[in-house]
User: What shape does this take?
Amino acid sequence: MRDVAVVSYACSNVARDASHNETEMIVPVLHEAIEKSGLAHDDIGFVCSGSLDYLQGGPFAFVAGLDAVGAWPPVRESHVEMDAAWALYEAWVAIQTGEVDSALVYGFGKSSPGDLHEIMALQLDPYYLLPLWPSMVDVAALQACAYLEANDATERNLAEVSARSQRNARENPNALRKGDVTAEEILQQPVTHRPLRDADIFPITDGSAAVVLAAGDVARRVSKRPAWIRGIEHRMEAHGLGVRDLTRSESTRAAGAAAGVAPGNVDVAELHAQFSHEELILAEALGLDGATTNINPSGGALAANAVMSAGLVRIGEVARRITNGEADRGVAHATSGPALQQNLVCVMEGE
Amino acid sequence: MTDVFTAHHVIEYPGGYTRSVGPVIGRFLTGLRDGRLLAVRLDDGRVLVPPTEYDPTTSAAVAPDGDHWVEVGPRGTVQSFTWVSHPRPGKHLLDTPFAFALIRPDGADTAILHVVDCGSADAIRVGSRVAPRWRAERTGSITDIEAWTPLGDGEEPEPATLHVPAEDEQPVTGITVPIRLEYELTAGIATTRYLKGLGEGKIIGGRAPSSDEVYAASRGTDPKSGEPTSVEVEVRDTGVITTFCVVNVPGLSELAPEIPYVSAQILLDGANNTFFGLIRGCPVDEVHMGQRVRAHWADELKPDHTSIQWFEPTGEPDASYEIYKDYL
Assistant: This one.
C-alpha cells in the first residue's frame, strides 16, 4: 500500500445560491483547494468528482463542472454519481495503482432549486417504494422511530445530538444552523416528521467542497503535517427497508472494522449524520464514545449538508484538525442511499 | 449581481415512466391484482415480502414459481411509523394526513413500507394491528392497496373485492409510474449576461484576465484553465461554419423547422469557441464547411435563444481551413 494523505481542503456552503450556476459556484472552492495544496494545477495527476444530475434536473449536468477544473490539455478524470467521499475513494485507488501521485477530488450540489426531499425518493426501489413517494425525511423518520423503540430512547436523546451540533457549529464559517441552544429548547419545537423535529433534520444547503490527495514524498513536500489515510473502506447493505435491521448500521460497523478504527484513540470523528438519530446509530457502530472522542466538532451534517459534498467535508474536517495539530488520529464517515444504506469510513493519522 | 435570471423547469415523463417488472415482482403484483399478498420462503426459512429476485442476505436467486411461494397477511403489525401532515398532491395516495409505516404482515419475517390511514398521529403506534384497504379496480401495482387501516381486537379485515379476470388476462409484466419534478434554476452570472445581450441584439462572451481566448455564451469559466471569464467581450454575429449536419428527422423539438434543415457549429468572429445555430437562406446541399454566415435576428428581441432565429450565408469567400481547423 502507498501512503496517501489529504494535503488540502476547502469548502463553501450557503442556504441558497441564487446568483451562480454550479460551475460558477465551485470555481472558488477548487481554486482554494489547489492553491492550499502547494501543488501546481498541472501537476495534479487525477481529477474525480461526485454530483447528482437530478439536483439540477439535467442529464450529464456534472460535465459542466469540469469547466471549473481546467481540462485542457486533457486531464485524467472520473466522476461518481455519489457523494464525493466515494470520488475520494476512487482517487485513493488511482494513487494506489502507482499511475498518479496526486488527485483533486471535489463534490458539489445545490439542493435549493428542486424539492430535495422528494427528489431523493427517486433513489428508492422503483417498483415497491417510488410509487408511494416517501420523502427522504419520511424514510429517515421510519429509522428514527425504529431506533428509539428498540433502544428505549426518547426524543430527548435526539435533541441532545442536535443541540450539541448547533453549539459546535458556532465556530464553523461553513455551518448554516448554529447557535447556543439546549436540548430543552429544541424539545419545545414542534415535531414535524414524527419523531423528528426540524432541528433533527439537516438544513437545505447549496455548496461544494474539494480535497487534494498526495502520495508519500509529494505529500511530505507540500504539507508540514499531512493527514495520512490509514484505512478507507465502504460497505453497503440491502436496499429494502423492511429487510434491514434499521436500529443499527451493520455496514458502518463492517467498514469501520475493515478500515481499522480500532484499536487506538480516536481524537476526533466527523460522522455524516443527516438526522440526529443517525449520529447515535453511527457512533455505536464505530464504537465511538463522546467522552473520549470529539464527535462532529464542525457541527456535522446537521449544521450544513450540501448533498454530494457533505461526506467529503467530513474527511476534510478531520484532515484539517490533524494537519493543524488539534488531533493525532481521527475517523471520517460518509453515507449514501436511503436510511444509511451505504457507508464509507476513513481513518486518518498525523505523524 | 442581483438580477440573475431564473427559470422554472419541469421534468416529467408524459404518461409515466414505464418499467418491466420481471417474473418475481410480476408475480407479487399479479397477487395484488387478485387481492392477495404473496411472499417467498428463502433458503434460511425466512419469509420475504415484498419478494425480490434475490435473497437479500445471500444474493441467491429466487425462482418465480415453486412451492416456496406462500400467502401472508392480510393482517399485519406496524414496526415503525412516521406521520405525514402535509400530503403531496399528485404523489401521495391519500390527500388527508396519514402515516408511512413499515408493516410486517402475519406470516412474514420482513416488513413492507406502505401508507396507513388512521386519521391522526395518535391513532398509530409500534405494534398497531392493521389490514389492507384494497382498491376495487386493481391493476397490479403496489398502489392496488390504497392504504392500510387499523384493526380492532378480533376485527376481521375487509376482504378484497373479487377480481374477475378478463378472458385473455396475462400476469403483470410492467408498471407505469408518473414522475414530475419541478425546479427553480439559476442561470448564473455569465449566462445571464449573455442572455441579456441577446435581448439587445448582441452576442456577449467572456474571457479570463489571464487569457486572450474569448468564449461566446460563456458559462462562467475558461474551460481550458478553469479561470473565471470575468472580462466581458462582445463578439460579432458573423462567423464560419466549422461543421454541420443535415437533419432529416422530423419533430426533434417544438422549435425545430420543417425537415430537411441544417444544424451547424459556427466559429463567430472574435470568439474562440463554436456556437450552435440553424442554417437557412440557401439549399441544404449548398451548406459547407468554411462557409461565411451571419445571424438573422428576430424582429422582436428577447433575452433568450429566440432572438437569433438562424444564420444565413453572407456570400463572402469561404474561410480557409487554417482558420477553423482547431475548432472541429
Remarks:
- Chain B touches chain A through 66 residues (CB under 8 Å).
- Chain B has a mean pLDDT of 94.
